[in-house]
Amino acid sequence: MSDISALSDRPPTLVCRNLWKVFGARAAEHLALAGTDAEKLLAQGLVPAVRAVDLTVRQGEIFVIMGLSGSGKSTLVRLLSRLIEPTAGEVLFNGQNLLTASEAEMTQIRRHKMGMVFQHFALLPHLTVLENVAFPLEVQGMARPAREVRAAEMIGLVGLSGREGAYPRQLSGGQQQRVGIARSLAVEPELWFLDEPFSALDPLIRRELQDEFVRLQSRLQKTIVFITHDFDEAIRLADRIAIMKDGAVVQCGTPEDLVLNPATDYVREFTQAVPKAKVVRLGSLLTPGPVAPGLAMLSARATVAEAAPAFVSGAVQIGVEDAGQPLGTVARDDVIRLLLGGGA
Q: How far is CA 93 from CA 11, 63, 67, in A?
């Protein structure tokens, strides 16, 4: 995860404005007549799968889109990559309107600038791990020696060195997903789409791959759009989260924003089971000022849960820092007040 204040200063990588996807005959014509009235569209037998979405994803950000099944999140990510055509709106990638790009231009953008990982690994069963990871580079026309070197680097990056000659059937589900991640990274994408990449895995492997994902992002600093229906997964990974319902984004903000200040009853229900200690960061609770020598020091990005061991050990307060610079302190009483419902 990145520093949110620093992210706000970064240029946008991906922007969508008033994005719609309506399924049904003459959808664009009906949408123009109905305006923003989804009920009118439904009454005419159309399905407004994505409704008037406005989003900005900044360079180096992990932007999570989440919602229940049928909320429109997977449709939205396919619109953002133009795997399906929007009914209306704009999608800008580094300032270029993707909706005016030709199919040949979109193919080149997807091959060279976008990476995609989906829930189903879609590895080629007759190719080895090395050949699977190198495959998109072969499609690009890269010479075999160069693509194999690059593929081997990516295999090492995801922790599978030594398995280059294995076939997909010889790998566990978690290893297969690592190969899928390595394959998508091989093209060095500027923008990385991941649509529920871990949801088919058992909980222990899923947690392991989430940790691996955080480690990779700390090194690579990719711009990432990550789709999930799991709020625990979202708060572990996200810089910001957009929650969708019935095709619309109902709230967008940091995990802290959503848990502490839900904008609607739907968001409140979505987040009510999440312990505040898992999402509230020490930077939200600190009292600015000097830090006494000998205090335990934690990052302003650390959560209250991560600070708990220090308080359990008897500390009355702990120091908070950012990039090695002391910012102030967090008192045990303020943590207790938060956990008892007093807010951040």
A: 11, 15, 24
Instruction: Say if CB 209 and CB 178 are below 8 A apart.
Output: yes
Token pair 């295999």 in the structure block, residue: 155
The model's pTM is 0.84
CA angle 187, 188, 192 (to 5 degrees): 95
- 8 A C-beta contact, residue 263 and residue 242: no
Residue 82 CB partners (closer than 8 Å, separation 6+) = 91, 98, 99, 101, 106
Cα 188 to chain centroid, rounded: 17
Structure tokens given for 85: 């055509």
Residue type, position 68, single letter: L
List pLDDT tens digits, range 247-274: 999 999 999 899 889 999 999 988 888 8
Query: Residue type for 235, please?
Result: I
Are 304 and 326 in contact, with CB atoms under 8 Å apart? no
